[in-house]
Specification:
Layout: E1 2-13, H1 19-24, E2 26-36, H2 39-44, H3 53-64, H4 71-85, E3 89-99, E4 109-117
Antiparallel strand pairs: 1-2, 2-3, 3-4
């Protein structure tokens, strides 16, 4: 079993429950831990035998463009699409970070972590 880690995909998105969050948006970072059997790609050195990072980033970007109230929903949608799109994934962990959330204290970020298994 191997692990591919794609760290801190930075996006601007429009998630949140407040009207201002839907209008102005905010900064988000997404990290993915992708576990799977990558022994084939280790031997063949071929992109089609692994999980294509560019496709992952495009999938994440596409899901981030669809507004949600909660980062929990964003993580859920990304995780489900990843499991459908990439059959090599055995276990996936995703972290969605909302940078400087609009709360009544100085909070640098809020994170949600989700794990899915086959």
């Amino acid at each position: 079993m191997g692990r591919i880690i794609i760290r801190e995909i930075l996006t601007h998105a429009y998630h949140g429950c407040l009207p201002s969050e839907k209008k102005i948006g905010g900064e988000y970072k997404i990290t993915l831990w992708i576990d799977g059997d990558f022994t084939e790609s280790e031997k063949t050195d071929l992109l089609e035998d692994t999980v294509d990072y560019d496709k992952v980033v495009n999938l994440v970007s596409h899901e981030m463009r669809q507004s949600s109230n909660l980062i929990e929903n964003v993580a859920y949608r990304i995780a489900n699409k990843m499991m459908l799109e990439f059959s090599k994934i055995k276990k996936l962990k995703i972290k969605v970070i909302k940078i400087t959330p609009p709360v009544s204290a100085e909070v640098p970020q809020v994170e949600y972590l989700l794990e899915k298994k086959r």
